[in-house]
Design a protein that fits this description.
This protein is an alpha/beta fold and 267 residues long. The chain has two domains: 147 residues, Periplasmic binding protein-like II (D-Maltodextrin-Binding Protein, domain 2, 3-Layer(aba) Sandwich); 111 residues, D-Maltodextrin-Binding Protein, domain 2. It contains eleven helices and twelve strands. Strand 5, helix 7 and strand 6 form a beta-alpha-beta unit. The radius of gyration is 21 Å and the shape is globular.
Length: 267
């Protein structure tokens, strides 16, 4: 009996030690809704013994969380906003980690005739047709990219009467578009994981402007002493290491790779 109590105590202590420290990662919804974190984070925890709590919101909101010092790691996809965060002293360094691309999806019949590779030409046709378009409208990385494309098409203030902002994540935006046979810009990773497609299909892809880079960074412990800097750096080091990069590359849905590792680049 005594031996069993000792063994139980040892097992309990081992379990506690395995997750003695948890870090908080503020991230974009696409890393979670695509299912990537479901594969990536357990592998990290197994390798390091560090647990991970995720706050999955739009990139703009995730950066706001990091600006308040309420996260240890920031993992997002809006390079301009990330570089601004670096310039503000929010992090000592930004690390490129992976990429995929954005795609424009819409009704398979494509009543606005947008199908092709040119995203700005497609938006011009949507505006001219007053076609139903669902914008996330939530300051996410996807929303920021979408607004850049409207601006590049000289249509920032003339998006057509079918334009609607949902103020929601990528999954809900896709659900709304599916229910209403509307057009919507999405990251490919979330699209490949999305099951409620209805009559939606990819209509615009392949434009180099649709490139979608992700960055990861430790929130600055000099500004926020509560940040678990050592553990956060272990996360960044692991996710940009060969092991972490392989874990990203090996994540597939229906045989299709969702994200492509590119740590060490200047993206």
């Amino acid at each position: 009996m005594k031996f069993r109590r000792i063994l139980a105590a040892l097992l309990l202590a081992a379990g506690a030690a395995a997750h003695a420290t948890d870090i908080t990662v503020a991230s974009t919804t696409s890393t979670e809704q695509s299912g990537l974190f479901g594969q990536l984070l357990p592998a990290f925890t197994q390798a390091t013994g560090i647990g991970v709590k995720v706050v999955a919101v739009g990139t703009g909101q995730a950066i706001d969380i990091a600006r308040r010092g309420d996260a240890d790691v920031l993992f997002v996809h809006d390079r301009a906003a990330e570089l601004k965060f670096v310039a503000e002293g929010g992090t000592p360094r930004r690390y490129p980690v992976m990429y995929n691309d954005f795609v424009l999806v819409g009704p398979r019949s494509d009543p606005a005739g947008v199908k092709g590779q040119d995203i700005t030409a497609a938006l011009g046709k949507l505006a001219a047709a007053n076609a139903p378009f669902i914008s996330r409208g939530d300051r996410s990385g996807t929303n920021a990219a979408e607004l850049r494309y409207w601006k590049a098409a000289n249509l920032a203030d003339h998006k057509g009467s079918g334009y609607r902002e949902c103020g929601c994540g990528m999954g809900p935006a896709l659900n709304i578009a599916s229910a209403g046979n509307a057009y919507v810009l999405t990251d490919r990773g979330t699209w490949l994981s999305f099951r409620n497609r209805g009559d939606l299909a990819i209509l615009v892809e392949g434009d180099k402007r649709l490139f979608n880079q992700y960055g990861v960074m430790v929130v600055n412990p000099q500004k926020f002493p509560q940040v678990k800097a050592a553990e956060a750096q272990k996360f960044v080091d692991w996710v940009t290491s060969p092991a972490g990069q392989q874990a990203i590359a090996s994540y597939k849905v229906g045989g299709e790779q969702l994200f492509f590792p590119n740590a060490g680049t200047d993206n």
